Amino acid sequence: MRGMHVVWWYTHFIFLLCQTISNMQFYIVVQKEEAELERLREKERIRSGKELLEAKRKEDDLKLKRNLELRRIEKEEEQRARDKIRVKLGIQCILYITSGPLFVMCS
Questions:
Q1: How far apart are CA 32 and CA 6, in angstroms?
Q2: CB of 29 within 8 A of CB of 36?
Q3: Which of 76, 67, 106 is nearest to 89 (CA)?
Q4: What percent of the chain has pLDDT over 90?
Q5: Is residue 74 a part of any domain in this protein?
Q6: Residue 15 forms beta bridges with which residues?
Q7: Residue 97's beta-bridge partner residues?
Q8: 94 occurs within a structural domain
Q9: How many CA atoms lie within 13 A of 21 on its CB side?
Q10: Per-residue pLDDT band at 96 (split at 50, 70, 90)
Q11: Average pLDDT, the chain
């Protein structure tokens, strides 16, 4: 009877050992899958961050272009207003182009 009892314990031990090994293999597979998912999440986070930075850069470029265009329009309007005043006052301006910057002479 005692021999049978030892065999049962041995069989039970082998069964538990196989179950443990199986669980460990499953755990390893799960760990690998979790690591892969984490890697993919990190990759996606980096990609979305780059997209966000690119969108921000484009928005800043557009804002700069709009501001430059508004400034150009303001200068043109200011110049037209000055020209109207000069015409009303009868002032004539002569532009002289020298080797350096533009030279304006008004009389």
A1: 38
A2: no
A3: 106
A4: 42
A5: yes
A6: none
A7: 102
A8: no
A9: 6
A10: low
A11: 81
